[in-house]
Amino acid sequence: MKKFTGLHRYLIEQDIIHESDIVAPSPVDITSLCTVHTNRYTNGIEEGTLNDKEKRRLGLPWSRRLALRSRLAVQGTINAALMALQDGIAGNLAGGTHHAMPDFGEGFCVYNDVAVAIQVLRQSMWAQKIMVIDCDVHQGNGTAEIFKENPDVFTFSLHGAKNYPFNKPPSSLDIGLPDGTKDETYLNTLGDALDNIFEEFEPDLVFYLGGIDPLESDHFGRLALTLNGLQNRDEIVIRKVISHDVPLVLLLSGGYAPTLKKTVLAHALMFETAQQLLN
Questions:
Q1: pTM value > 0.85
Q2: Which of 8, 9, 33, 103 is most enclosed, with most CB atoms within 10 A?
């Protein structure tokens, strides 16, 4: 959990963002959560009434702080999406909790912030055709499942083929990579996929889940990207989106580097790259 405050501090200290750029969210309202999640599950998180099996599946001990933090993170993604629509690019220094399903959470994901943001934006007519580019090493099963029958939401997941989750509902496009995939293969695969996707789908808004767990040093990733490869990945995605003049939302998603410092530095690459490409 310390990576979130560590990243915020690092981005300020390195002048990548400024204090005036930061907008602290309020907790998302329950009505918005329930555009994706069931009343039963939402009440279970808010009131702490999940059963033991549900708590184990979530992977996090329930507390009121967890419930509050989860609602703040969702609203942070909604805010970032609205700001991206106005300014071209924005980010949430959290978010990307793509494993959460409508009636349960799993894989350290309480609510699916991207799915809730998409539903809120679509219902409010802020955007209709939305793309999710998910480069976390774990497939975005929750997002894929939620939008599996919605042709106006394109979900693309580039992940480790043999990694969690073991049941992978189909995204609009899934590319599973073998263990040990290195920079060149990864980056070529990503670039070719994005070229093809943007030929067939014209989004109003893109969410980018820039998980750092494809790094070779990651505890659970099983791929073999270098830090330079990770930064090149971020550049490929950000450059592609802004070249099409589409608003972009940056989200952290997962990452388990060997130390807190290395985790923060890896997550910061996405924001640093965005700043460089926009200047």
A1: yes
A2: 33
**What is the Cα–Cα distance from 18 to 167, expressed in whole angstroms?**
41
Length of the chain, in residues: 279
What is the tens place of the pLDDT at every residue in 186-224? 999 999 999 999 999 999 999 999 999 999 999 889 999
Give buried/exposed letters for 211-228 (b at 16+ CB in 10 A, else e): bbbbbbbbeebbbbbebe
Please report which residue ranges of the chain form alpha helices under DSSP H: 2-13, 30-33, 39-47, 52-58, 64-87, 113-123, 141-146, 183-200, 227-243, 260-278
Report the alpha-carbon distance of residue 162 to residue 176 in Å, rounded: 8
134 bridge partner residues:
157, 209
Residue located via tokens 């893109």: 206
Distance CA 119, CA 191 (A): 28
Cα atoms in the 13 Å half-sphere on the side-chain side of 146: 29
Q: Which of 193, 188, 189, 192 is nearest to 171 (CA)?
A: 193
The DSSP secondary-structure symbol of 213 reads T
| Residue 81 CB-density burial (10 A; 0-12 exposed, 13-18 middle, 19+ buried) | buried
Residue labelled with tokens 């889940």: 209
Domain that holds residue 168: 2-278
Question: Under 8 Å CB-to-CB from 276, ≥6 apart: which residues?
Answer: none
Distance of CA 41 to the CA centre of its chain: 21
Amino acid at 14: Q
Q: How many domains does the chain have?
A: 1
pLDDT in tens, 57-108: 999 999 999 999 999 999 999 999 999 999 999 999 999 999 999 999 999 9
Distance, in Å, from the CA atom of 161 to the CA atom of 174, rounded to the nearest integer, reads 9
Q: In the 8-state DSSP scheme, what is residue 240? A: H
Helix (H, G, I), strand (E, B) or coil at 251: strand
